Every structure is written in structure tokens, then in C-alpha cells.
UniProtKB/TrEMBL annotation:
The lineage of its organism: Bacteria, Pseudomonadati, Bacteroidota, Cytophagia, Cytophagales. InterPro entries: ArsR-like_HTH (IPR011991), WH-like_DNA-bd_sf (IPR036388), WH_DNA-bd_sf (IPR036390). This is Winged helix-turn-helix transcriptional regulator. It comes from the Bacteria. It comes from Algoriphagus aestuariicola. SUPFAM superfamilies: Winged helix' DNA-binding domain (SSF46785).
């Protein structure tokens, strides 16, 4: 869906990264996270920055990128991304009722900008309400017609490649 509108897979990944949640990132970490060359990520970061969709700020010797929430199309792009992911309602409900959710991370195809029909989500937290999780996953499937696979972990794994949609 989103990948048919935006032809660059790297650009789709960047839009998902920055507009799904208030994420920020720098060139090398993004290249590593997306398993892409730094050059391809740099080209797309420059295009999105030139278009005004991303802001680039120097933090020491590192340039950090984040979504420009004052851009006229910020709300529309954020809305498209969250609908593409189908997680806007799910995340709101999970965070409110699940208990101590520390992080929610999209992994798999959706993290790479591919609409495969299955959303893989990792929730990090302790003492989460798993009965409610099953209920809300089934309800979400009915609404967005996408299967959601959720893995619950008590601690955040090292070097997890994905898109952070909740937490820090």
C-alpha cells in the first residue's frame, strides 16, 4: 500500500521510523537498523530533509534526524503511516490496559515497509494482561484485516532491529 505510493524502500522505512512515533536517529544507526548502505540512507535522508519533512540537528559531531511536526503535511503523513501499520488504536488500547508496557517494537516485514498482511509486534514489560492482549489482537484483526503476532518479553533484547512505536 504505502510502498506502492513511495517507490524507494529506504524512504518507506524512514517514513515509518520517523512518523510512526516520535523517533529520532542518525545515519549510521539507521543504516544498521534497516540493513542498508549508509549511502542509500543518506540519499533518502537528504531528500526528506530537503522536502522539509525531516529536521536535521547537530548533536556534537553527529547529525540527528527527526520528523518535522510543523510541516504542513505532518498530520497527513503520520495518519497514512499509522493506518498503514494499523496500530494506532491497538497501541492506545494496549498501553492503557495491559499494565506496565515499557516498549512496543514492530519487527519483521512491516518494519521494512512491506505490507505482508501480518504485523509482528514485540511488547516489553512485566506482569502484562495476556488475556486482554489476546482479546485486543482479535478485535484489531477484525478492524484492520491484518494478523498480529505479539511476543511479550520482560526485558528489551540487545540489537533488536525494528521500529519503536511506544516507549524509549
Amino acid at each position: 500500500m504505502l510502498d506502492s505510493l513511495v517507490t524507494s524502500k529506504t524512504r518507506v522505512k524512514l517514513l515509518l521510523k520517523f512518523f510512526a512515533h516520535a523517533n529520532s536517529g542518525y545515519l549510521r544507526s539507521l543504516a544498521k537498523e534497516f540493513d542498508e548502505s549508509t549511502n542509500s540512507v543518506r540519499v533518502e535522508l537528504n531528500r526528506l530533509t530537503d522536502a522539509g519533512l525531516l529536521l536535521a540537528e547537530d548533536e556534537g559531531k553527529t547529525k540527528v534526524y527527526r520528523a518535522n511536526n510543523s510541516h504542513p503535511f505532518f498530520s497527513e503523513i503520520k495518519g497514512m503511516v499509522t493506518k498503514f501499520l494499523g496500530l494506532d488504536e491497538l497501541m492506545e488500547k494496549i498501553v492503557k490496559r495491559m499494565g506496565n508496557v515499557e516498549k512496543a517494537i514492530i519487527v519483521g516485514d512491516y518494519a521494512h515497509g512491506v505490507d505482508s498482511g501480518t504485523i509482528d509486534l514485540i511488547l516489553v514489560g512485566r506482569d502484562l494482561d495476556l488475556v486482554y492482549l489476546d482479546f485486543i489482537v482479535n478485535k484489531t484483526f477484525e478492524k484492520i484485516n491484518r494478523k498480529i503476532r505479539v511476543r511479550v518479553l520482560e526485558e528489551s533484547p540487545e540489537n533488536l532491529a525494528g521500529i519503536l512505536v511506544y516507549g524509549k
